[in-house]
Amino acid sequence: MFSTLILLISCNNKEEKFPIEKRYWTVDDYENVVRELRYATKPDESLPRFNDPETKIVIEKLTDEENFRVVLNDKELGLTHKSETAQKFFDVWRSLNETYSLLDKKDMYVYEKESLEIWRFGLELQQEYFKLGNQKINENSDGSESVNKVLSDNVETLIDNSIIYLNVITNEKQFTEDGKKLIAETIVTSFTKLIEENPKADFTNLKNKINLLNKKITDPTISGSLNSLSTVINITKPKTEIESLVN
């Protein structure tokens, strides 16, 4: 009975801190939760983890892409409001990403799965964020060459931001076998979507990064995902553009 009482008290306190009963978390919810995790977690306490039955719901909520999609894909909302909301989500994601990017004394990730899932969340969020930004520019532009340049530059920034993820996973020794599988899945899903939704973009930097990683990465699962990504680029880009990419 005493053990049960402690568990119930613990769960009730957690419900007070985190709105786990809500179907979707707003930006305000994220800000409050991340603030709690960053500044109220004691040194000997663990952050919410997928393998912890008590806190699993919290990290599942934090990495649920539907939280931002329900707002950013709402056709009844204006582009300005959605763009501002996307910016706020992006800001809180960066704080969340930093919170979970802890390394132990062996330079291994303390929260490997959580960190990688947060990265996947961020990659998907950024694609929506930049898409909305360009839609807003298009809506208020005259289609001039200078505007087209801004749109193109924004897509290039999105690609360069996504490459940061590939920089993070360069040292494959920092990840377990399960982590490597998750990395490969993210490369295939998020980066394939990035390419297919921006077929006219310049993927030279991404192609170069893939080539560099292929010389370093030995894990067959990650290497296979990188090769699949190269294939997608080659299929998407016209032959003349493919030939201009550095091999």
- Structural category is mainly alpha
Helix content: over 70%
Rounded to the nearest angstrom, the radius of gyration is 20 Å
Number of helices: 11
Order of helices and strands: HHHHHHHHHHH
The coarse silhouette is flat
Model regions low in confidence, pLDDT < 50 over at least 5 residues: 1-12
Largest sheet: number of strands, sense, barrel closure:
none
Distance between the termini: 67 Å
Number of distinct beta strands: 0
β-strand amount: under 5%
Integer average pLDDT? 89
Structure description:
The chain is mainly α. It is 70% helix and 0% strand. The chain is built from eleven helices and no strands. The protein has helices at 2-17, 27-39, 56-62, 66-72, 79-100, 112-139, 145-168, 177-197, 204-216, 220-236, 239-244. The longest helix has 28 residues, at 112-139. 26% of the residues are buried. Residues 1-12 have low confidence and may be disordered.
What's the arrangement of secondary structure elements?
Elements: H1 2-17, H2 27-39, H3 56-62, H4 66-72, H5 79-100, H6 112-139, H7 145-168, H8 177-197, H9 204-216, H10 220-236, H11 239-244
Helix pairs in contact: 2-5, 5-6, 6-7, 6-8, 7-9, 8-10, 9-10
Short description:
Helix content is 70%, strand content 0%. It contains 11 helices and no strands.
Descriptors for this entry?
247 residues, mainly alpha, 11 helices, flat, disordered N terminus
